[in-house]
Amino acid sequence: MAAPQASASLARPAGAEEGVMDEQLGGSEVASFYTGKTLFITGATGFLGKVLLEKLLRSCSGVRRVYVLARPRKDVSAQDRMDDILKSVLFDRLREEQPDFAGKVQAMRGDMIEPRMGLCEQDLGTLRREVNAVIHCAATVKFDEKLKLALQMNVTGVEQLLGVARSFEKLEALVHTSTAYANCDRPHIEERVYEPVVDPSRLRDALEWMTDEHADGLTAPLVGKRPNTYTLTKSLAEALVLKDSRECGYPIAIMRPSIVGAIADEPLPGWCDNLNGPGGLYLACGKGVLRVMRGDPQAVADIVPVDMCANMLLAICWHTARTRPAEPLVFNCTSGAANPLYWQKNNEYVQEAFTRYPLEDVFRRPNFAHVPSLAGYRLWTFFSHYLPALVADSLATAVGRRRRMVRIYGKLQKLTEAYYYFTSHNWTWEAGNGERLLNNHMSEQDRALFSFNMRAINWPRYIEAYCLGIKKFILKEDFGKLARARLQHRRLRAGRIFFTCLACAMLWRVAYRSYIRSRAYAKRPSLFFFLNPFSPLVVLAMRLFKVPVDPLALPYAPTPVYSTARA
Q1: Strand partners, 370
Q2: What is the DSSP string of 468-526?
Q3: Contact status, residue 448 vs residue 332, Cβ threshold 8 Å
Q4: What is the pTM of this model?
Q5: pLDDT tens figures, 157-189
Q6: In angstroms, how far is CA 544 from the centroid of its own chain?
């Protein structure tokens, strides 16, 4: 494990250090708070954790040290894993501004679900002596996680963290990251901790001796009106935080972000490294695979950019250390009340973005919509998903390729069903604490440097940047090949128009042939000849070759079923 490099400025007197940093940071109170401080961050290898770490190191350059909890993977140590993250494109701007920033970051081997988070005595001693603030971001975000595992990660892990944090000698603030959907069984969610459906400690003790089958049997009654174990366990974790705050006395705050999306502003607009949340839906739409999913097109898609979440976390940590509230302050980090984005508009922006900047090797052109009714969803799913998948797999078999589209659509259906609860409901969240923090407690410089003003989001531009981020950072596609991707889109469009016209002609032909067998045809047969969609083509060809045209004498002209001759 690489040892952190001590900065020369750490040897300066505290007053001189703060004065220098205040001048460098333009009088930012939030950034100045972190000068000379040591932080402990969990979940720094996750999406939000990476952006939080980058923002902390770049905008709060006076921070002394950042300890991050990381699990080793196979032959990769915790520190090597962290070093690889620090070499990623997300940290390029920070690398240019502060070439030696990596020396401030030290990974500690551990695991949230193990006793004392799996930390060794040496690392625990270091944390006890040095840490001034803790920001907890680690969690499992899988919606279909088993109750036991979800409880271990989201509840037992929080319990272990709170137990360890009690021994920190210099702790000034602890911020716990929850979710805005922790209490989604309520239509209106206030900025307070609600009473849990069950005592978290008792549930943990009960599940220890239960088999997986018994635990699965408890899931439905405990989840209740909630959609999954993720929202349930996040609610239980909040109850643990409230209880610990009353017992230990150190300042604690809770932040509840809604659907966390790609970076909106800095350091890289559109950056994302996973397909959780809306990213997976955007990719499936851009590839032309996802055409329809069940949901209310007029429901609010409560998306919050990840950089605004990181800014809010840092501001909350500063505010909590400064005000030292007796009870945990809860901050709902949502966009729906201030700047609502509806799913219908979201879908339109995604289609426009991927039409302007198409992905490579798409299945079909982007065209996506939410359907509220179950019958309509099943109908559109059959014609827009499974029928094209069957045709594609049949063609793949004919040319000796692997069948995969039906399997892909099976997985896609499970994904969209998991999101149905969140795309078909509307919630209202209180946001008073965040509004007061931004407008009343933060200076003008801090509001610019650590902005989480949801009203400033331009949704069409943000969604376009998000889609471009998927193309660039997830799929690693070359923008120099846009011309080829656009050509493929034009070909798919021409093919769709051709087959649509062909299908309409065939349907009209069937209707025509059925109608001429009625009595009406016997009265005016020549009129119905020209209603045949193929007749004008045949007549035109015969005219070009100067062949006499007698409509009723053509080979395909049907014989009337009913004779017009009188007896």
Answers
A1: 293
A2: HHIIIIIS---GGGHHHHHHHHHHHHHHHHHHHHHHHHHHHHHHHHHHTTSHHHHH-HH
A3: no
A4: 0.83
A5: 898 999 899 989 999 999 999 999 999 999 999
A6: 60
